[in-house]
TrEMBL record:
Pfam families: Cons_hypoth698 (PF03601). The chain crosses the membrane at residues 29-51, 63-82, 88-110, 117-140, 146-168, 180-203, 209-229, 250-271, 277-297, 309-328. Belongs to the UPF0324 family. GO terms for cellular component: plasma membrane. Keywords: Cell membrane, Membrane, Transmembrane, Transmembrane helix. It is a multi-pass membrane protein. It is found in: Cell membrane. This is Protein of unassigned function. InterPro entries: UPF0324_pro. Its main location: membrane.
Length: 334
């Protein structure tokens, strides 16, 4: 309860700040989702929550956001997936594969161990910390490499959420194009929400759908890595032998729940007057999870991560951004 209550306090503060923005300017230039991350990050940097807060913060960051993502499915029409066309879906698959290969090449060129390179590549290309956590036991990654990759990805993920909307005027993207860009580059599903809500509803829906296709790529990627893991060179100390993951590790339950609600809506089983309340509940829970995400980020961690890891993750992310922009331009996404 203490950790959950702390996240709720930050959520209320973020919503109050957004309401103040709307009162003063008529428009929330910084949404409550982003404000919750900033408040959580500022608090975490100044103060480390004690043990009694950790369970509630972890619950808010994981279970609460998973429920929020499931409920979000009721506000998304499967028709948007069909409208995106097979070319975009194929492009997402190709972008993930190309990013993994390019990122591995960059990290290896920087002298990083092969397993560390794979962790960074999969984290950037698919879904950040979740992909790192799923891939690590399959390839037998060293626990210190896992910790370093996750720590830096957490910080970089927040920076992406805050900085990506600034890319819209620079690239001249419309809402649909920006949604594809966010879905291809932002790490986690709730972070996609935080990065797209300030831009518009269309950007949020397209970004979420593109992101879910990326997340579904985790299954095939893990299967491929499990086949090549025995052939990987030894990196020294390792956390253990390569392992196997169950179905719900490859395809998280909340993605299935999201798709189930989207299907139920498409079939007309969810009444129209339920959609707005469900959307509001999902939005509130997402802000709670963003506060928890901020509480898990200490910006001082950047000084503790090795220079080669920092350069490798950053370069890999820039490659992903370049691939995403080329995909959007090449497919003529409008």
């Amino acid at each position: 309860m203490p950790g959950l209550f702390l996240c709720l306090i930050l959520t209320v503060m973020a919503q109050a700040l957004q309401a103040g923005e709307e009162h003063l300017t008529g428009h929330p230039y910084v949404e409550a989702l982003v404000l919750a991350i900033l408040l959580g990050t500022a608090l975490r940097t100044a103060w480390v929550p004690g043990a009694r807060f950790k369970a509630g913060i972890a619950f808010s960051a994981k279970q609460v956001l998973e429920v929020a993502v499931v409920l979000l499915g009721a506000s998304v029409s499967l028709g948007a997936i069909v409208a995106s066309g097979p070319a975009l879906l194929a492009g997402i698959v190709g972008a993930v594969a190309l990013t993994i290969l390019a990122s591995c090449a960059i990290c290896r060129a920087l002298g990083l161990p092969v397993r560390m390179a794979l962790l960074i590549a999969c984290g950037n290309a698919i879904c950040g910390n979740s992909a790192i956590a799923a891939v690590a036991p399959v390839i037998g990654a060293d626990s210190r490499d896992v910790a370093a990759a996750i720590a830096f990805t957490a910080v970089l993920g927040v920076l992406m959420v805050l900085g990506l909307p600034l890319f819209v005027p620079l690239a001249g993207f419309g809402e649909h194009q920006y949604g594809v860009l966010a879905g291809l580059t932002v790490y986690a599903v709730p972070q996609v929400l935080a990065a797209t809500v300030p831009v518009g509803t269309l950007a949020t829906q397209v970004g979420t759908l593109v992101k879910l296709v990326r997340v579904l790529m985790l299954g095939p990627v893990v299967v491929v890595l499990s086949l090549i893991a025995p052939r990987l060179p030894a990196d020294g100390a390792r956390a253990g032998a390569p392992g196997r993951l169950g179905f719900f590790k490859l395809v998280p339950w909340f993605i299935l729940g999201f798709l189930a609600l989207a299907t139920l809506r498409a079939l007309g089983f969810i009444p129209e007057d339920w959609l707005q309340p469900l959307s509001r509940i999902a939005g509130f829970l997402t802000i709670v999870s963003m506060a928890a995400l901020g509480l898990g980020v200490d910006v001082r961690i950047l000084a503790q991560v090795g220079g080669r890891v920092t350069l490798g993750v950053t370069a890999s992310l820039l490659v992903l951004l370049a691939i995403a922009v080329l995909l959007i331009r090449g497919l003529g996404v409008g």
